[in-house]
Design goal:
Length: 467
């Protein structure tokens, strides 16, 4: 395509009197990563060309030739038949050059009334909308697996912790449902990011709109955007929707990471609450006995790089004058990486959970040998009229005594209990059983089976609202 009268072969090279340095070509080219946007770029161009034709800005014949040419490029790209060229710099110019190569003159009219600045904003917004949708469905699968574990374990008692010290008994269902709540919030966060991206910037031009009578609303409609941007300067320099998406990825990774931390702890010999399937564990090259929870550790580890991506874009954006600056090209790699990482991690975590064995008897034993019914003992005395603060102190004394004898509260005889308070009666044993400690916590949001069942019904309803 080299024009012999020009010193530069670039699509934008008309005013340049020499070629760019080869290192420079390689340095600023984005095709290596923005090729991922080929589908969005082509769909955006098809809508733009269609509108240009409808508005009489280009001829109907040219519009048709452009649309047909772009469709051909799309199917070749889908089939992996296109060799993207670094010297064509980015996805926009690769496709435009290819189009002109294939259809001739008409191809050169595609870019009428458009800039790569509004084009990249469009492509990225379309990509983000799709990707948020994929993240939502990936998370939905994860939440459903968590829910199915919860359904099987509404009666499986385990210790609940604060400060990683055994605190009060809960159930495995209640614990799982805590993560379902987190994942539901993550899904809502992705839905909000998708909504933030749902604004068509096309028609903003390089920064100051365009003199052509474009029909911005028509392009938005063709591409399924629900609204158009209100300010051309803002439209080409806004990356909030990328940040929103990366924030959604970051918070979600934080949730996955916390669960993975628990899975790693629970699979240790110290806890032995779960056995992670061999399919998601690995061995040691030196220590024959080792089975390591690598998948859980990697998910925890990868959380850091997703945060790093969010932070790097925040820092990139903070000093930029209006409107477009090339710095903003740095948004894509961390965005893609965050989305890919989250997708991989959520997929592996879902499989790891679905295939893990939960050792419910051991969990229940750990709950009952850690004084997790001490609050209930104080509540019992308070129920018989003793002020709670006093009851707390009395039970503190019982716990101290039991700890030195290495027994639990209900291992004491009634006479022994009465040495601490005359208010103890035979019914204390039933009240302080793990089962009733859990069953009596039946407020909405509590661990009692009936409360968890209500929460599960609600979660199923909320999950069904996502599509
Ligand atoms: N590759 C660029 C990016 O990702 C597209 C916009 C380039 N615009 C420009 N005037 N160089 O941001």
């Amino acid at each position: 395509m080299r024009n012999e009268n020009r010193a530069s072969a670039k699509l934008w090279g008309g005013g340049f009197d020499r070629e760019t340095d080869a290192w420079m070509d390689d340095f600023h080219a984005s095709i290596r990563f923005d090729r991922r946007l080929y589908r969005q770029d082509i769909q955006g161009s098809i809508a733009h060309a269609t509108m240009l034709g409808e508005q009489g800005i280009i001829s109907a014949a040219d519009a048709r030739a452009i649309v047909d040419g772009l469709r051909g490029i799309l199917s070749d790209a889908d089939a992996g038949r296109i060799a993207w060229r670094v010297d064509a710099e980015d996805i926009h110019m690769n496709i435009e050059a290819l189009l002109t190569e294939r259809i001739g003159e008409a191809g050169k009219r595609l870019h009428t009334g458009r800039s790569r600045n509004d084009q990249i904003a469009l492509d990225t917004r379309m990509y983000v909308k799709d990707a948020c949708g994929s993240s939502i469905s990936r998370l939905k699968t994860l939440a459903e697996t968590m829910l199915s574990i919860a359904r099987r374990h509404t009666e499986s008692i385990m210790p609940g912790y604060t400060h990683l010290q055994r605190a009060q008994p809960v159930t495995l269902a209640h614990h799982m449902m805590a993560y379902v709540e987190m994942v539901l919030r993550d899904m809502e966060r992705f839905a909000r990011a998708r909504d933030a991206a749902d604004v068509s910037p096309l028609g903003s031009g390089a920064l100051a709109g365009t003199t052509y009578p474009l029909d911005r609303a028509r392009v938005a409609e063709l591409l399924g955007f629900s609204r158009i941007s209100a300010n051309s300067l803002d439209a080409v320099s806004d990356r909030d929707y990328v940040l929103d998406t990366m924030y959604a990825c970051s918070v979600c990774m934080m949730h996955l990471s916390r669960l993975c931390e628990e899975l790693a702890l629970w699979s240790s010999l110290e806890f032995r609450f779960i056995t992670i399937s061999d399919a998601y564990a690995t061995g040691s090259s030196m220590m024959p006995q080792k089975k390591n929870p690598d998948a859980a550790e990697l998910i925890r580890g990868k959380t850091g790089r997703v945060y790093g991506g969010l932070l790097s874009l925040l820092v990139t954006m903070k000093g930029l004058p209006l409107a477009y600056n090339k710095d903003m090209q740095e948004d894509k790699e961390p965005l893609f990486d965050a989305l890919d990482t989250l997708d991989n991690c959520a997929r592996i975590l879902e499989r790891m959970l679905a295939t893990a064995a939960f050792h419910t008897q051991r969990m229940a034993r750990r709950a009952s040998d850690g004084f997790t019914n001490a609050t209930d003992a104080a509540d019992y005395l308070a129920g018989k009229g003793m002020p709670f603060r006093e009851a707390h102190e009395v039970v503190g004394g019982i716990v101290r005594a039991c700890a030195s004898r290495e027994c639990g509260i209900t291992d004491l005889t009634l006479d022994e209990l009465r040495e601490f308070s005359q208010l103890f009666d035979e019914d204390a044993y039933e009240a302080l059983s793990m089962k009733s400690c859990v069953a009596r916590r039946n407020l909405p949001g509590g661990p009692a089976a009936e409360s968890v069942e209500a929460a599960m019904l609600e979660a199923v309803k909320r999950l069904a609202e996502f599509c």
